[in-house]
Amino acid sequence: MKIEIKNLSKELDKNEILTDINLTMESGKIYGLVGRNGSGKSVLLKCICGFLPPTKGKILVDKEDIFEKGKFPDSIAEMIEHPKYLPDLSAYDNLELIASIKKIATEKDIENALEIVNLENNKKQFKKFSLGMKQKLGIAQVIMENPKIMIFDEPFNGIEDSTAEKIREYLKKNKKNKIIIIATHIKEDIESLCDEIIEIKNGTIAK
Q1: At how many degrees (to 10) do helices 91-102 and 131-144 cross?
Q2: What pTM does this model have?
């Protein structure tokens, strides 16, 4: 699998957020997207997911322009900005509800994803979750369907070091045949994890 971003620019409210982005990402690698808050990381991720069409340029997934036919990329899962779930449901019940849409993740897949992020057997309602627990649930949602493209936006915020390291090890061991993209403003969070680090500054790729 390959993602090709060609001459991509994006305007929001007449402000240019991204300018002439050119990137190629291939299966089997973990990519780190590093930049300060407001640098354009989240907007770029939303474009890759198909949520925001580019003002100029193209995004190709396996040579297919994802915006030409208004089609989301196949086999993709994302955690962008703050994950939102039903407040009265537990971690498992929220994931079970989401899994019922595509019918890809099994009960065992959900349990395994929650175990990876150390949320297994947690019966708390989502509305009682800490920031770190919300982040963990967002990561588990991305993992549970084993997609070919995984996208994480600031995934380690509020997560204790031991769990963050466990998640990093899982991603390293399972990157084969996947494109994994992790955006963060803290380079040290992902330096040992990524095969390639891309720095974004003021909406452009830093050379």
Answers
A1: 30
A2: 0.94
